[in-house]
Amino acid sequence: MGRGREYTRSLAARNSVSVQVVTGDFYTVDFPGTFESVCYWDGFGIGSDDDQRRLLSRVAGWLRPGATAFIDIYTPWYWAYHAGFARQHPGYTQVYGFDAQGCRMTDTYMPHGEEALTQSLRCYSPADLQLLLSGTGLVLTDVWPGGDYDPQAGVYRPEASLGECMTFTVLLQREPSLSAAGRARR
Fold this sequence. Notes:
By secondary structure, the protein is of the alpha+beta class. It has five helices and ten strands, in the order H-E-H-E-H-E-E-E-E-H-E-E-E-E-H. It has helices at residues 2-14, 49-62, 76-82, 126-133, 180-185, and strands at residues 35-40, 63-74, 86-89, 92-99, 104-111, 117-122, 138-145, 148-150, 155-157, 167-174. The strands form three sheets. Strands 1-2-10-7 form a four-stranded mixed β-sheet. A four-stranded antiparallel β-sheet has the order 3-4-5-6. It is globular, with a radius of gyration of 18 Å.
């Protein structure tokens, strides 16, 4: 965790940007004020849809009126297409998977001679996310496709179409009508 904080601070310093880096539990952390923006990379989708909705409601309460959240979201189409791909690394094998019923990507690491470790994230399309946002205090204002990785060739393209990308970033704005009393209930 410390490396992530330090890397974030170094990026901010290099770009003359002021950031506040907080490490904590999304569901219990409290802040003394609100923010102009909140960024959440590479982790949205941990848990259930109810967990995501709860997190999104908390994010809305962390934002000033009209402020923006940037959230990185895994797509179902990339992971469904590449399910079953296995890559050999020195010391372990990595296997991509996809749980179609739960719409979850799986990324399994099998160290040679040890127990396999699997990470799983719920994947969303922009339309799925729109449904998830209902009642959270956030509105989807834009979608930015990310890149894609060709596991066969070992090549990453930083830009891909929405229908090909691994992830996309959404811009969510706090609803102007979200009052302080509404935020307190969340």
